Amino acid sequence: MVLLSTFIGVFLAIATASSAAPTGACPAPKPSPNQDPGYGTPSKNQTGIPKPKDFAAFEEKYRAGIRASLPSGNCTINNIGRRRSWDEIDIATRLDYIRAVKCLAAKPALTDKSLAPGAVNRLDDFTYIHINQTNIIHGTGYLLPWHRIFLWQFEEAMRNECGYKNFLPYWDNARFSEDPLASAVWSGSDTGFGANGIDLHLEAKTVIFPGLAKPFSIHMPGGTGGGCITNGPFTDFTISLGPVAKTFIDKNNTYGYESNPRCLSRNFDPASSKGVLTWANATAIVTTPNIAALRGTIEGLWHKNSHTYIGGEGADPFSTTNDPAFYLLHAQIDRLWGIWQGQNLQDREYAIDGNRTFLGIPLDYAPDVPPSLATIEDEMDMGLGFKPKTKKGMPMTKGGLCYIYE
Length: 406
What we know:
Residues 21-50 are annotated as: Disordered. This is Di-copper centre-containing protein. The chain has 406 residues and is mostly helical. It has a single domain (2-405), classed as di-copper center containing domain from catechol oxidase (Orthogonal Bundle), CATH 1.10.1280. Helix content is 29%, strand content 6%. The chain contains 9 helices and 7 strands. A hairpin with a 7-residue loop joins strand 4 (205-208) and strand 5. The chain starts with a strand and ends with a strand.
């Protein structure tokens, strides 16, 4: 059995005939040219580690490149969505975001029950397709473009189905790498996502990936929690799908599609953040020389450790989307990729690297298919019948996508 203790960052996905936000819905309401298309007045939170000047310079070059590329189709300087750090958006926007997440949790699932009998609500639609596609969208060339579209689908569902008036925030974990709990993301108030779960004094374990032609397992640390979260707006949250990555292959519920109602758990692992999710490493990511180096670094370093830090539901490579903080975590990854692209937008916007399956390992239903490289013309399954080409998930201002990170 392959044991890769440092690769729990190669995380899941979804895809087959049903899930995520439906296509063809009304476009999100756009602000007028005289209205700030981002959030309300940014907070003046000065906590955390200040952004280094070199990273700020790379970020500004990215923003300048995006602005210079506009207009791009229907995306203009006046209507581009501004994605900002959770620690910088105002209280009203945080509350509205959390309200919209709970709104999706109250809406019935659209996923066919024959595919996921345990899918209860719209959040489960996203979790189902992420589970379904995990072995295709992690450790492959699809990691970044698939998740870029996935985040956009979630943002659109929040706006169109639940009246959220702003854009997807990100978890600025580099700013709080040495003291993650100082971030407002993990606040136990009504304006955060809650903190750690009850400490169950868990031991480290090895869990198995189902669905691959060759056995593959990953190491999960014992962490400092593991039980239900006890504060914040999601203490009464009930999740249904998963878990999937277990110490054994569950023949009766291999992919966690059956109903399994339970609380939201977390298992913070400080060692995965301190000295790891730093400004220095973030800078190293956005300055990698090519897409192969970028993908390997962002996936093996940032993606891995961000999920491992959260632990609990958030660390299961398949059903990680059960934790609402998932979307802020992946917005940060998308942001780092975007900043890297923005250093040379012309040459990097459609750059792709990687296999079509997890680490090139064949899927169990096609064990004899040799490894092959992903291309931007490949089709990606986003759920609910939406199967765009990979190239749709490469730009930030084309094909219906229209946003910038601030």
